[in-house]
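Teaching note: in complex prediction, the entire set of molecules is handled at once rather than each chain in isolation. The prompt given to students was simply: 'Predict the structure of this complex.' The entities are:
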Amino acid sequence: MSISTSPRKAVANERSRTNDPDRTKADILAVATEEFAAHGLSGARVDAIAERTRTSKRMIYYYFGGKDGLYLAVLEKAYADIRAIEAALELDLLDPIGALRRVIDQTFENDDSHTDFVRLVSIENINQGKHLAEAPSIRQINLRIIEIIGAILERGQAAGLFRSDLEPVDVHMMISAFCFFRVANRHTFGSIHRVDLSEPDRRQKHKQMIADAVVGLLLQK
Amino acid sequence: MSISTSPRKAVANERSRTNDPDRTKADILAVATEEFAAHGLSGARVDAIAERTRTSKRMIYYYFGGKDGLYLAVLEKAYADIRAIEAALELDLLDPIGALRRVIDQTFENDDSHTDFVRLVSIENINQGKHLAEAPSIRQINLRIIEIIGAILERGQAAGLFRSDLEPVDVHMMISAFCFFRVANRHTFGSIHRVDLSEPDRRQKHKQMIADAVVGLLLQK
DNA sequence: GACATAATGGACGAACCCGTACGTTCAAGG
DNA sequence: CCTTGAACGTACGGGTTCGTCCATTATGTC
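The expected output is the structure of the full assembly:
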């Protein structure tokens, strides 16, 4: 995680870069993320990952213990990356409706641009969330988004704008469901209904739709 | 597909039931549906399916050609079963809003009770919809739901109730996204936010939420 | 500069898994 | 009955895939 602890040699010398654990780990993780996202847990091949790596299969077992350990590390990093973006949201200056629209926009853009993350979450659900259940760090990370939405709802309710019978987690689910489905089910939905869900016009329309729907729902009394 | 073409022998004799192709095929299909839904395409084991069947592995290859052929047959049957229910909806007597709520209710209940179907669709998306693309029958089946929603929207627009800038397929997606996500992402979402999405109270609340949101969205001008 | 420890590579084994070759039984028609 | 094709079972081969054993090189420390 740190800025590489490799020794003096790494300054300028290009070729003789040997024994760089941080880089090796990061390299494996990046390749593994692609492989797992593309083929799922059981479909991913350890040999295939090793082959596309700067290093060898031996290192996967050295650093991650095995296929499952590697998968878990990939999952943890994917969640951490996504939520780090959400955590940086600046909403205090906006009115409740504006803040809510900002959160929705962010979730939409996040899922849209992080296809690998969406696929990994789908895969983990196929696997019944068994690996994620053993990664307490992931839960921690995700509480932030609930806090953010909770704060917005409170402000909206205090102002007499929003209804008060919806919990933050339910609002989050409604937003996530739409943004996630749009990416996760792109293939089947697109193929069946002959629509390209990633086409700019429809993309824009959908973003407007989910924002209007959620805001409209909260304004209902 | 017919009511079994087996001979006179099959009337009452319990034990000597031999050579019953329809039953053999249906048996394989049922077991395979469970196995694929549980472990995905690459995770499913042909040997495991064969073992839990009344018959042998040889019959899988005899009737379905191979693992891929079997998977495709499972997928087709899953879609057909779900959409057959939707096609039976009787909506002509209801006002547009009532009809829309009825469709949403139906979709919600369908996804909620057909976990295997939801999982298979997720799996097919992980597989980038490649198999579904080669199954024209599935597309045909799904057009029905779009027709239904299209008719409701037209009536609502004619009555001056609904906005007219949303296509049926977009409304369908909004409904599907919520109902599908609730089931497909049950494990990760539940584990992270410590909620049981299948608990009756929350279930009911969510059903109300998606209905209110979609109706509310359409009533916006 | 010697030594302990961390990092790395290549080769390999054992289990697994898909698909098939080959042989047998059943059912309907002559 | 006898033939013929459909329905079925057993056993196995060939390829794949995970994980490890053994050997080697780098790195930091005293």
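Point out the following to students. The two ends of chain A are 48 Å apart (CA to CA). Chain A has ten helices and no strands.
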